[in-house]
Amino acid sequence: MERNDAVMPMVSIVVAAIMWVLLLFIFAKDTHVPAVEISPELKASAAKAWPTLGKQVYTQTEPSCAGCHGANGESAGGGPALAGDEKILVDPNLVITNIRKGRGIMPAYPNLSDEEVLAVTNYIRNSWGNKAEVLGPEVLQAAVSNITPEVLRVRSRFVPEDIGLPQIFLATFVMLLLTYGIIGLYSVWAEGVELKPGIHKVRSTPMAVFAMVIALGSTVIFALLFAMQILRGLQGIASDPPVPPTVTLEGFYSAMAFLSLAAVLGIYKKYFMDGEALIEDASGEFPW
Ligand code: HEC
């Protein structure tokens, strides 16, 4: 008996693909980082302010930096010497992050304004024999976010808060259509275009065994890759500063593991398992 469901799966897959393209257009959105706005006054004053404001913050903020690092950056017991400290010259972010977030016994200073943080940073980098470039307000932004524009660019373009009910509905519909099509195509492949009622004997071939080994192997490999990627992601989240996990890779590996597993099951059903086919109603609406 000729199957009546050999065409429908193709139709539903094509329709799903078209809807998927539509969805991509609905979701498409630029996720580039907005330019940092820096007030011109802050920019102009930053260059001038550090010798006075910077020194004032260094000596007068409570608890005072000078109390731990010494009035002349020579260290006063509590903290390391800042005079001649190479690290603060090469890495201004270290200074800014230490002031904002604290480190070890050094307290955080959440009450200092941007201007004050910048001034004291320039002050300790340019006093007591230290010499470094005088920084502008841009570095404050750089220190706040460790997520580079590159990282943002490779992140998903689909921002969760953009997804509303209509998109969820459409996406679900696409998934259903795709699943319908794939199951239909699969059943035509596994059972044949002709429906032959009765017991189907296995007809395992060397090629089928080979394909089975490949599919099993890739299931294991992708599952391992997935587990490793998850571990790497967790390490990134726990590190300081945290690194966002590579969701794309995690998704890719898990999808490949599931696809390989599906291939294993499919090959098993077609070539290794005796099956019974029943006579189907040729006008059935759900053909498989
Ligand atoms: C209670 C004492 C204390 C106070 C107050 C303090 N610090 Fe510190 N600071 C430390 C200690 C201790 C470290 C070393 C922390 C570590 O590496 O674990 C440190 C580290 C630093 C570093 C990094 C030095 C390096 O080479 O790693 C900078 C820069 C710094 N402090 C600047 C400041 C500034 C600016 C202030 C005032 C706004 C300040 N500190 C106030 C104790 C203090």
From TrEMBL:
Keyword presence, Mitochondrion: no
Key word DNA damage present: no
Domain Cytochrome c: start-end pairs: 49-128
Pfam families in alphabetical order: Cytochrome_CBB3 (PF13442)
Alphabetical keyword list: Heme, Iron, Membrane, Metal-binding, Transmembrane, Transmembrane helix
MF term (GO), any: electron transfer activity
Alphabetical list of Gene3D superfamilies matching this protein: Cytochrome c-like domain
Membrane-spanning parts: 7-28, 168-189, 209-231, 251-268
Protein name (Swiss-Prot/TrEMBL): Cytochrome c, mono-and diheme variants family
Taxonomy of the source species: Bacteria, Thermotogati, Deinococcota, Deinococci, Deinococcales
